């Protein structure tokens, strides 16, 4: 089996999670790693000693001609490396959100179409077995028609200094915007949102209501307010309500409690866990799916690019509504991609 030659751009927090997974995927060879920060490059060279380090992603793509590129830069820096990699003939995996504005997201959709290469965005909830099971139960009619989905996704205060460059709806809420589209199999028609700030230019709390075209309602709660002493870095709850049944999911599940000398911890297994020397979980399954698609040349029916584009459009409308104090409608052609 021919190896898939992969290059990584951006060696920050998310890259650390990806770096635990790439070495265990059969037939994947990381040939290049790129970051302008020498300390980050040095750290990742310990993980990928055979990969060539680069400070410039253009130079890396030109020299290495990778089959696939993993783009892990901040969201406002996605467009140029993704476009360049696609034009160079590489398939691309980019972490969510696809882009930081609808215009940039549409630009990447067009770039992928023009290149004939696959572009997938990391909407990892689609690989969480709980959400996948919920979708199957909905499809079997066990909940009846889904009337509403409430999604709370709050993270620790300590992360706000990393992500205060953008509204939490783009980092936290984007997960559940995509999840609601997926589970309801419908598009958002109108959003209404409110926000609150602790004296920062960018809000650290935002609530939004999404009205779907067939009448479903989505409620999003996102903030960076969990205290450092919280037993988990995240507090997630999803309530799916249909006219014949309901489903509730929580993260962390409470299936494991770790009690140390200073504090108790409820670990989350969303980003991954290690058992018998191998990393498992939704992220590992997602990256393996990307490689399977690259190797087979088969576009993904799970991580569709149009869905990532829709999520950015809705997130942008949420922020617009929160800033203006007015509802924002999405035209049908915007919602349908």
Automatic annotation (TrEMBL):
<feature type="domain" description="GFO/IDH/MocA-like oxidoreductase">
    <location>
        <begin position="131"/>
        <end position="248"/>
    </location>
</feature>
<dbReference type="InterPro" id="IPR000683">
    <property type="entry name" value="Gfo/Idh/MocA-like_OxRdtase_N"/>
</dbReference>
<feature type="domain" description="Gfo/Idh/MocA-like oxidoreductase N-terminal">
    <location>
        <begin position="5"/>
        <end position="123"/>
    </location>
</feature>
<protein>
    <recommendedName>
        <fullName>Gfo/Idh/MocA family oxidoreductase</fullName>
    </recommendedName>
</protein>
<dbReference type="GO" id="GO:0000166">
    <property type="term" value="F:nucleotide binding"/>
</dbReference>
<dbReference type="Pfam" id="PF01408">
    <property type="entry name" value="GFO_IDH_MocA"/>
</dbReference>
<dbReference type="Pfam" id="PF22725">
    <property type="entry name" value="GFO_IDH_MocA_C3"/>
</dbReference>
<dbReference type="InterPro" id="IPR055170">
    <property type="entry name" value="GFO_IDH_MocA-like_dom"/>
</dbReference>
<dbReference type="InterPro" id="IPR051450">
    <property type="entry name" value="Gfo/Idh/MocA_Oxidoreductases"/>
</dbReference>
<dbReference type="InterPro" id="IPR036291">
    <property type="entry name" value="NAD(P)-bd_dom_sf"/>
</dbReference>
